[in-house]
Amino acid sequence: MDKKVLITGASGFIGSFLTEGALKRGYRVIAGIRPTSNRQYLADPRMHLLEMDFSSVESLTTTLSGLQSTGLSPDFLIHNAGITRARRREDFFHVNAEFTGNLVQAIEKCDLKLRKFLFMSSLAASGPGNEQTQVPIRITDPPSPVENYGKSKLAAEQIIRETARFPWIILRPTGVYGPHEKDYYNLYRMISRGVEPYLITPDQQMSLIYIEDLVKVVFLALESQIENAVYLVSDGNTYSSRQFSTAVKSALGARTISFTVPGLIARMLVTFGELQSRLFHATPLLSKDKYAIISRKNWLCDVSPLKDELGFQPDFTIDSGLPVTLEWYRNNNLLK
Ligand SMILES: NC(=O)c1ccc[n+]([C@@H]2O[C@H](COP(=O)([O-])OP(=O)(O)OC[C@H]3O[C@@H](n4cnc5c(N)ncnc54)[C@H](OP(=O)(O)O)[C@@H]3O)[C@@H](O)[C@H]2O)c1
Fold it and tell me: Is the CB of 159 under 6 A from ligand 1?
C-alpha cells in the first residue's frame, strides 16, 4: 500500500527538501503551494501540486475533500508552511498560528484519517537558554520565547495540543543550513567578499542542523510509534558563531577582515531598520525580532530525547555540511 504525504510550504527551502526526501522514501507526495509559489524545485512529475488557501477553513475543507474524492487522501501531513520574517507581530500570528488553527479545523471537518500530523515549529518557541550556565535548552524547560516569531510558533503548538483529535508530533528545529537557503547565504556572501562580521560577540553559542539531517528526523518522527510529543532538533553539537564563520571561510578558501558590531551600534541599526520598515513597508534585515535572537548567547539544545526515543544519528556536522552547501552556491554562480 502506498503512503501519501501532504507537505505544506513545499516551495520553500525546507519544503523542497522534504518533498524530495519523501519521494526517495517511496511516498506519494502532495506538495501544498500557493498560486504565486516558485515551482523551481517542484518539477518532479511524480509530485501532485496542490494550491491551498490557509486563510479560509471553508476553502481548506474543500481542497482536502477534493483529495479524498480523488483517492489522494493523505496518510501523513507535514505542516511546514510558515514565515520567519515579518514586519508586524500580527503577521507572524496570522500566518504561523491562525493558519495552523484553520488547517486543524479543516482536517477535523472533512474527517481526514491522518496517521500523523507533523508541525514544523522552531527552537525559537522554546526561547534561549541560560547565558550564565550555558546549559543547553531542554524540551522540559518552560518555554519563554523572546520575540514574535517564537511566540507565534508556540501559539500554533498550543492550538494543535488543544484542538487536534488526530495523532501529532511537533519538531522545534534550530537554524537549518543547506543549499538554496536565504538567511545564512547573506553571511556566506559577505565572507566570500572578505568581510567577517559579528553582532555583539563572536562567541554566541549555537546549535545547527544540515537540511538532509532535518529531513531524516522528520521521517523518523512521522514513521515512529510516538504520538503527541515535542522534540528539539539539532545535530547535537555546540558551535560558536566564530567557529561557524571559520568553517565557511575554510570551505571557501577566503581571507577576511573580521569585526564585531557593538551592542549600542546594533541597537541603532535596529531602530533605523524599524523606521525604514515603517516608512517603506519593507521587512528590515535586522529587525527587533532578529536582534532579540542574535543578541542571546545560548542557543544550544539538548537532543538526547531525539536520539534515545527516535534513534536519530546525524550524518553531518558543519565540517561536512558546509562544504556541500557552499559548493552548491558556487555551482549556481551565487558565490565567488
Ligand atoms: N530555516 C530555518 O532555519 C528554520 C528553523 C526552524 C524552523 N523553521 C520553520 O520551517 C518552515 C519552513 O521554513 P523555510 O526556512 O523553508 O522558509 P521558506 O523558504 O521561507 O519557506 C516557507 C514556505 O512557507 C510558505 N508560506 C509562507 N507564507 C505562506 C502563506 N501565507 N500561505 C501559504 N504558504 C505560505 C512559502 O510559500 P511561498 O513559496 O509561496 O512563499 C514557502 O513554501 C517554517 O515554518 C519555519 O518557521 C525554519
Answer: no
